[in-house]
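note to self — DONT lose this again. spent like an hour looking for the file last time. sequence + predicted structure for the chain T wanted, 292 res
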Amino acid sequence: MTELKEKRHIKDWWATRPMTYGQLHGEPLYQTETGEFVAVEMGSREFFDQVDKTFYSWTQAFHTKEGHFAGLFPYERYRNKKVLEIGCGMGTMIMNWAKQGAHVTAVDLNPVAIAQTKRRFDLLGLQGDIIEMDANILQFPDSTFDYVYSWGVLHHSPDLGRSISELLRVLKPNGEYGIMLYNRASVYYWYLVGYLEGFLHGESRFLTPLELASRYTDGNEQEGNPHTWPVTKQEMKDLLQPHSAELNIYAMGPFEYAFPPKIASYLPERWIRAWAKRWAWSLYMKGTKRLA
């Protein structure tokens, strides 16, 4: 498959299965506190409330009294400054940056994500530039943004190195960045992808490691998406260290996803929390761009 066809495949797949955080990948169907299921209309206020409620519950460790994700993002340092999100999804994170006073720009390859994020901003009366754009070819001048981040997106890029290069290119020298990607050295990956599907179900006999990871990570109930390749700490260090004055890479929770449920049910919570710091499903890279 050529690069252009692969990108089109990725774009089309995500457009038909946007990240709604619903009961089924790509569908706005949610379970209530009473156990009932409710379908909501995409683009409605109720839809965005449901998206946020689910996403916040998964990321609760990063919320503080200063705001959602305030334990992760340095909001105070970047008020009235230019912030870029690469891969905005339904707009939850960039909404919080806008509420915290940043001048925000969000890009996504998926036109549905762009339309929904624009709709969210309209409903809330927020200002921001929401643009359909390829992360491999960011259409901004060098050193445009004070802070750039991407959350759970770039492992879907068929050229991660170019996406990282573009992210750093548009970031100002001494600007900060944050990147979350899936962790190939996680217990979750080893068990669900490598052991359960690859070995026990025998799928590694006819699928490459990339095909196996793509099929059984995001959207696994639909046999996965076209391209998902989790990373290792060393791979990200090789990409980021040459351009960074400071760099920290660590595995992070939520700890509930550090181990598959069938394994976690036999382990004390304190063990899971401790091991999640090394083998959790997500890697987070944060750093500062080196001065030219």
